[in-house]
Amino acid sequence: MSNTQLHVPGWLDAHIPDIALAFNTTGIVLTALVLLGIAYAAWNPVSRLHLNRVSFRLLVCALISNLIFAATSIPTFSGPSAGCSFMAFLGLGILMFSSCMFFCTALNLQLVLVYHINGNSMEKFYYIGSVVVVAILNITPYAAGQFGYYFGTCWFNNPLPDVQFRWLVGSQSVWILLMSTGEVMRNPRGMSTSSTSFSIPPSPAILVYRSIILRIGLYPLLSCCLSFTGCILDIWLTKNTEPTELQFRLSFLDLCVFALRPTLYTLIAATDPGFLRALRALRNHSKSKHSTGPTSSNEHTNSESHELQFYSNNSRAPVHVQLEREQKSTTWGAESNKSRVEQSSAPLKSFETQSVMSQGGAVGARRMPSFVEQEPAQSVISLAEREQEEGQELEAQTRSLAEDIARQI
């Protein structure tokens, strides 16, 4: 059948409202479930930190917008009415607000990584600017009476195709296309140098946040594809109102593009790295709370040995000497002399108080370490500990800076 021939109604025409209802209901259910999971993860202090991100809050606003859009897209009106006009105003306004949120997500990524602007301080301007733009572009056609019942849906309903086309392009399509173009625009030079502008050396934290940055760029990309396709189809369908076979197929494609938006956005949001880390944190916390770990092996080790702390007259540094139980029966004298072996099993406390202070005794001299020989070893150990502390401090500063950047994007 040629695409220029008039469309002959078939079985698909009768089931188009059912298909739209199935798509919208699926989007509503999935989006509601994901939003409930996000709300619980944001409420729980164990997982709240993983969702503390500007782009994730913008994503949540976009999900709420698409949830309302899916609810308003369910066919509930069969003719012109004031309720249908308001539903068209609400649906188109929410659709544009969702596009604004994804545009702000892409804009915030550029401002933070390229121009080093704090994303947290810019977040309120994203919301205010989006509300102002949506209000101006949707209140004007609503006040002019351009919304109403149009071929089974609530949309622009001016009887003159040219006037309807001008209102569609001037108040919706041009702005959504501009935002879709801005969502995929990048500054290659700035993005290539942004990783070194913060003086952050390569670290596991940066490698972790790289996946978040790539995922953040995926949201505007999907929004650009869907918004661009929907706007082009709307413009073409408005200019070609003759019911041909091509017009019917493109109209059905346009319906699928808009009806599947909530489902596609929800599926991508459900696999967000931050949201998945929050769920893993909740799961690990639940496991650790209900599990009973075995007795630590350190307690057994400490029960088998005694730690004595000696203080030298020449040095204030404590010296630790380990006396193993298995050696106390053979420390003093020869094995053949039973009397001296029995004396070696005397209380350990008397040895701590008397034999340590007598430096001239043979036993004390044999057991007491040389403090002169330990001083270089202690200096080497202190130097290594100092270097280790400096490395840990540098790593902590790097991780703190990386986490701060991750909260801004």
Automatic annotation (TrEMBL):
Bilayer-crossing regions: 20-42, 54-74, 86-113, 125-144, 164-182, 216-238
Region of interest (Disordered), ranges: 286-307, 322-354, 385-409
Record has Transmembrane as a keyword: yes
Presence of keyword Transmembrane helix: yes
Coiled coil: none
Keywords for the protein's UniProt record, in alphabetical order: Membrane, Transmembrane, Transmembrane helix
Top-rank taxon, per record: Eukaryota
Ranges of biased composition (kind: Polar residues): 329-354
Protein name: Uncharacterized protein
Species the sequence originates in: Mycena metata
